[in-house]
Amino acid sequence: MRYLAVLIVALWPALLAAAEWEDHQTFGDTEASAPLRILSSTDTSFFAPIIAAFVARQPGVAVEYLVTGTADLDARFRDAPAAYDVVISSAMDLQLKLANDGFAAPLDMPEHPDRAQWHKRLFGFTTEPAAIVVNKELFADLPLPRSRQDLIEVLRANPERFTGKVGTYDVRDSGLGYLFATQDARSSETFWRLMEVMGRLDARLYCCSGEMIDDLATGRLAVAYNVLGSYAEARATEAGALTVILPSEFPTAMMRTALISRAAPQPEVAKAFLRHLIQMQAGGGDAGFPLPPLATSNDATGGTSISLDPALMTYLDRMKRQMFIQEWENAIVQQD
Amino acid sequence: MTAEVHVHGSLRRRLGLILTGGAAVLAVILYLAVRTFAAQIAQQGQDSILNASVTSILDTAVLRDGEVLLDFPYASLSMLGTSADDRVFYAIHADDRLLSGYDSLPAPGASQDSLPRFRTTDHGGEPVRMATDARTLIGAQGQTTVTVSVAQTQDALSETLNAISRRVALFGIGFFALSTALALWAAATTSRQLRRLTTSVTRRGPQDLRPVAQPVPSEMGPLVASLNTLMGRLDHALTRSEEFLAEAAHRVRTPLATVRAYAETTLQRVDNPDNRKALHAMIRAIDESSRAASQLLDHAMVTFRADTLTREDLELSELLRDLVDRMRPVADMKDITLSLRAEGPAVLHGDAILLQNALRNLIDNALKYAPAETRVEVAVRSEGAGPVVTVIDEGPGFDAAEIDTLATRFVRGKAMGHTIGSGLGLTIVQAVVLAHGATMTLSNTAEGGACVTLQF
Ligand SMILES: Nc1ncnc2c1ncn2[C@@H]1O[C@H](COP(=O)(O)OP(=O)(O)OP(=O)(O)O)[C@@H](O)[C@H]1O
Ligand SMILES: [Mg+2]
């Protein structure tokens, strides 16, 4: 009996997490019998205008917007694909694997650029670079880094100022963090050196961009690496101390992607929503699209977008993931 | 002269059918062959990429502390990107234990002969092509076999195949259309040769039995050769029978004339009434034979010529005047007034010899059956459709009961009396009239005399 109680107490946070959402809101006709259930990793503030425009055009439709982290989102959707209609995530690799594993329903969207869709099932609708975000006040007299190399040098030169004040994603928890890290590692050895430097400075690890930016704004962090530029830009306007820097050597940009569940309870509404989303995206900022729309070509952001490609599944391989996390932990965690 | 021909099928249609049918079969074979070939090549292409992917994964297999590790590169899966975004599945096994990847892929199985192995299987209700290869790693604890399978759906492949099929189908249809046009042209050209020969033979005159001289294709050579031989034989036979007729007439009449002359001379010298009677009977029999011989020969000649009329434009009144003048001595002997009444021109396109023969028979009858000191009138006039010739006498006329049968061969009327005849005269007239597409009508005049009307 006591053993069982211990087990319940031990498992409680996990059970709580399973039931809870980072955010959970309903839009549109509250009378509607069955709402369109959107499972998303994007903050509600970004999606509210998109959904509002959708329900305004479709009377009698309600939309339930459920927010959670990318890794959790993937797990929840795989558990119950029939419980959700649309899945939106910034973790391209997890999304592509969902589509590859047959969880997504096809949708014809010939006007959508080819590189932003995969197998007629997965649709990219933003281009968002990973950025270095710094708090200018804490940098004070130091020069702002332009690249990863600059960042390594400035961190190495000023350990006393930056110890405990650098942050990045915990790739073990965050799907997006893992995607950015693996793509960085694939591009250059600089990534590993940066991780080692950050590890030596007692880097703080985050599950989500939001908290990282909060801590930057309050001054708990002086610099954060691989933060979603779009989120940071939004906060930079209100907290004047924040500066978003796109690393000049090889900026990594991801596409936020959406898919329709093959077991969607409301497939028609889901299709209409995806068309609406893509249409709004095509209109860009002028049409009230709150996220950075698709880059018209790859060099618009000065770097390469991660492409929708079956190779995204490489680092999701159990062995590859184990090896990568091992190496990452060696670099950033066990430095003391 | 058109003869009934038993027609069965058409060479031109048969030729066209065989050629277009052949083209259709060829087009279908071409389509199937190219499609199969294209499918093979496309499959080989996919297989080689799958194999490259398997190899690049397998190459990274290492044994570290007794554990199998595969740190395969990004390119291993990246190289599998296709235009149709085909789904990709892989599985890595170490001694039949799944290390990572999809457990839904079929297990590698024990057989390791013939590696790499390719097969098409079903994965999640969709056909996939799968490549499998294996490698044996040797470590301190013994050896481990690592098996890697990579599978891919075939959407891009079937898209490519469909595109190729469409193009090949178009090509096949074009090939067929072209062949059909060629076939029709060939059939038309071939049958044109036949038609040209037919026209040249049909256009010939009735007496033209010359061999065909114009060049013909070699296939038609034997036909034309036998046609030429046939016509040659026909020509020869015709010439021979004409000669034979003339010869036969001569040969029969001459000895009869001699016999008759002797009989006449003998009659002068014989006084015994019995002997005289016998001689009279003899002379009469000779006359009958002579008449029969010459009428038979005339009849044969008429029948023979009737098939191939030698037509020319004739002025009938002239022809009749000639004839009447020649018959007048015979009429004079019986004190018969033989007259000709010709009203205006009466032109006829016909065979002069035959017409002369027919009209002579009619006048001969009139002179023969009418009593002495009467009149025989021959009249010709042009009336609507063509000339009309009538021969009228003042004799007993035709017997109403016999009138329909008199034109039959060897039939003589009851009223013939002692006149000499063979019963072929009207038969000859009928044959000539038929050959000219005309009609003969036998009737009697109001006074009772005979009236024969020929309406051309
Ligand atoms: N003008 C005529 N008047 C009366 N009877 C005629 C006259 N012409 C022909 N006939 C009758 O028709 C019969 C057939 O005539 P046709 O000319 O065919 O034979 P034919 O005169 O007897 O012999 P031939 O062959 O020598 O002329 C005659 O036997 C005769 O009885
Ligand atoms: Mg007669």
From TrEMBL, chain A:
Keyword terms, alphabetized: Signal
Signal sequence interval, chain numbering: 1-18
Residue stretches spanning the membrane: none
GO cellular component: outer membrane-bounded periplasmic space
Pfam (any one): SBP_bac_1
Tagged with keyword Transferase: no
Superkingdom to which the source organism belongs: Bacteria
Name this protein carries in UniProt: ABC transporter substrate-binding protein
Species assigned in the record: Thalassorhabdomicrobium marinisediminis
Automatic annotation (TrEMBL), chain B:
EC number: 2.7.13.3
Main localization (coarse): membrane
GO cellular component, one term: plasma membrane
One Pfam family linked to the record: HisKA
UniProt keyword list: Kinase, Membrane, Phosphoprotein, Transferase, Transmembrane, Transmembrane helix, Two-component regulatory system
Residue ranges crossing the lipid bilayer per the database entry: 15-34, 168-188
Broad class of enzyme this protein falls into: transferase
Catalytic activity from the UniProt record: ATP + protein L-histidine = ADP + protein N-phospho-L-histidine
GO molecular function, one term: phosphorelay sensor kinase activity
Localisation: Membrane
Domain HAMP: start-end pairs: 188-239
SUPFAM superfamilies according to UniProt: ATPase domain of HSP90 chaperone/DNA topoisomerase II/histidine kinase, Homodimeric domain of signal transducing histidine kinase
Residue intervals of the Histidine kinase domain: 247-456
InterPro entries associated with the record: 2CSK_N (IPR013727), HAMP_dom (IPR003660), HATPase_C_sf (IPR036890), HATPase_dom (IPR003594), His_kinase_dom (IPR005467), HisK_dim/P_dom (IPR003661), HisK_dim/P_sf (IPR036097), TCS_sensor_his_kinase (IPR050428)
Protein name according to UniProt: histidine kinase
Organism phylogeny: Bacteria, Pseudomonadati, Pseudomonadota, Alphaproteobacteria, Rhodobacterales
